[in-house]
Amino acid sequence: MQNSELSFGKQTFINHKKADLHDFYEIEDEIGTGRYSRCYRAKNKETGHYFACKELEKGNLTDYETLMSEIDILIKLDHPNIIKLYEIYETDKYIYLIMELCTGGELFNRIIRKTENGEIFNEREAANIFRQMMSAIAYCHSKKVAHRDLKPENLLLFDESPNSPIKVIDFGMSKIYKESSDPMNDYVGTAFYISPEVLEGKYDAKCDIWSAGVILYLLLSGCLPFDGENDEEVFKKIKSLKYDFPSNEWDNISDEAKDLVKGMLCEASCRFDVEQVIKHTWVRKLAPNAKPWEKNTININTLKSYAKSNKLKQATITFIASRLSENNLQKYKNSFQKIDMKGNGMLDMEEMKKAIGNRGVVEEIFRSIDTDHSGSIEYTKFVAANMDKNLYLDTARLKDAFKLFDLDQNGKISKENIKDVLKIKEGDSELTNLFEKYDIDKDGQLSFDEFENMMNEELELDD
User: Fold this and answer.
1) Residue 410 has what DSSP assignment?
2) What is the pLDDT of residue 294?
3) What pLDDT does 427 receive?
4) Is residue 149 flagged as an active site residue?
5) Is the pLDDT of residue 5 over 70?
6) Same domain, 444 and 323
């Protein structure tokens, strides 16, 4: 089993189960509602961990295919500022999505609370929020996904802390496109944030840039650039492309911030693309995460160890990385964002060389982490490759990972189990070697003790 024959990532471990959610989770208080859904706080009966559970009654769904498209997009995306999907349960009547639990509420509500108290976000706070949002959108656009309904209500705060990370949610109106210039024509979005070209019925992914520009204007001033008594009045103002910077709200806002807003709230043909927004002076210099470059923010020996590990160990660590809490992820996210100088939510070879030095080993490490050969490293894979041993050697986490591979639920892992989980269709030379080395009792399967010994093995690293 060679690298070229194997591809796995966060999405490998998101299962769609035809089972009753209530057998596995305790449903607690309701935390939100939507047009066709309810969201609850849910406790995993086995681990005691809390998640958000989105419940959708099939009978209320007008378009089952649209829902499946949203789920497919969430499975595909892997970014620190995009809400995580962990599991899907489906019965004859309901579909349940087990997702990351965010306790800080909507960004919209925090904006409202500030304005009610006569406050607004200062530029540094706004830049911090905006940079996270745009990194997520840059990543989406790199994956040919247009969100199409960006608004503060679809930006959740992970917790109640002043500098809480944000999470982009609700991909129900999102669309996968082939080329950035491919026109879309369906009417989607929310009145105050919708772009003029969407109203005209012919637009592309730059509609997200407009919506993000409206959010930025609101963050900085506490007001909307286009408002009105009704949708018709709002749409008329949007189509006019006319707005201003009232002195009371904008006198103390920098010229760079105003320049960025102007580059986003304009005709589509003149509008900044996502790369121009990310590289804009205001975003680069005011965002707290865009600090002066610091080399060696990652541990080269940890990367080497991951690169030399067998694929079962790499897959196990990746699974554990995909399930870490935000608190456990904080230092890895900081490192990731420091290295991600292009701000597109992915790391390329050039960025990795700058981070750890242009050594010959960098390319080998990069290829090992880049298991899908995309030429970039996404967030969860970066976390896996950098993870401290004390995190992935935690017994509870190892048992959770072991159960993922123990498809027969007999306390053993077989070669076929591994092939099924990692979707290996051919070639098993590495698996054969792995079992020869770690299957101590030679029964053709790995017990948990044998699995744990494999995970604990110290590898000899080259200087």
Assistant:
1) S
2) 43
3) 64
4) yes
5) no
6) yes
CATH number at residue 61: 3.30.200.20
User: Looking at the predicted structure, is the pLDDT value of residue 194 above 80?
Assistant: yes
Q: What is the DSSP string of 39-50?
A: EEEEEETTT--E
Q: Round to whole Å and give the CA distance between 430 and 433.
A: 5
Task: Give the distance between the most distant pair of CA atoms in the chain.
Answer: 78
292, pLDDT greater than 50: no
Q: Using one digit for the tens of pLDDT, what is the confidence trace for 441-452?
A: 999 999 999 999
The torsion angle over the Cα atoms of residues 190, 195, 200 and 202, rounded to 10 degrees, is -100
Is 404:446 a contact under the CB 8 Å cutoff? no
Q: Is residue 342 part of a domain?
A: yes
Query: In the numeric block, which tokens belong to residue 6?
Result: 């194997």
- String of b and e for 330-353 (b: at least 16 CB within 10 Å)? eebbebbbbbbbbbbbbbbbebbe
More confidently predicted of 365 and 194? 194
Residues 145 and 173 in one domain: yes
pLDDT at 293 over 60: no
Q: Could you tell me if 134 and 270 lie in one domain?
A: yes
Residue 243 lies in a domain: yes
Domain ranges, residue 359: 300-456
Residues 79 and 7 in one domain: yes
Check if the beta carbon of residue 146 is closer than 8 Å to that of residue 208.
yes
Q: Considering the domain boundaries, does residue 39 fall inside one?
A: yes
3-state secondary structure of 314: helix
* 162-174 residue pLDDT tens: 889 999 999 989 9
| Total domains present in the chain | 3
Same domain, 272 and 331: no
pLDDT of residue 289: 31
Residue that finishes a domain, picked among 81, 99, 117: 99
Q: Catalytic residue among 20, 29, 92, 149, which?
A: 149
CA 211 to chain centre: 19
291: pLDDT strictly greater than 50: no
